[in-house]
Design a protein that fits this description.
- It is built from five helices and no strands.
- The chain has 134 residues and is mainly alpha-helical.
- Among the domains are: 57 residues; 32 residues.
- Helix 2 crosses helix 3.
- The chain is elongated, with a radius of gyration of 32 Å.
- The termini are far apart.
Length: 134
């Protein structure tokens, strides 16, 4: 059996929605799932108990995804160019790290091979075993 937990009030949900709006980037609308998690409910439970808020969020999500160059923010093209530049820089940096890691693995492999050879060299000495009784 499941325990009945108290549902948050509509005011609690609206307060959580307002805090989500403050936390999320200006170009993205908060999702219903994020709001449901914020108030401690499963997504389906939230949708079943607060359908008016879900409809309101869906209606406002179409208007918040538009580009916002008029209010001093950067346009979508500018933000994509900045993101592309950042991703190219990160890619170049990761490629350098990969090259360094590959060189280190090669060095360690050669060192391991040399140490294995040094370990095998003393084993060429034959061990004197005690005689077996007949």
């Amino acid at each position: 059996m499941t325990r009945h937990t108290g549902l948050p009030t509509v005011e609690d949900v609206r307060a959580a929605l307002a805090s989500l709006h403050a936390d999320v980037e200006t170009t993205r609308a908060p999702t219903v799932l994020a709001l449901a998690q914020r108030v401690g409910l499963a997504n389906t439970t939230f949708r079943r108990n607060f359908p008016a808020i879900v409809v309101q969020m869906k209606g406002s999500s179409t208007t918040t995804h538009d580009a916002r160059p008029a209010d001093g923010g950067s346009s979508t093209g500018d933000s994509l160019a900045q993101q592309n530049t950042r991703l190219r820089h990160d890619n170049r940096e990761l490629s350098e790290h990969l090259a360094l890691a590959t060189a280190e693995i090669q060095r360690l492999s050669l060192q391991f091979h040399g140490l294995r050879g040094e370990l095998a060299a003393p084993r060429n000495v034959s061990a004197i075993r005690p005689r077996r009784p007949r």
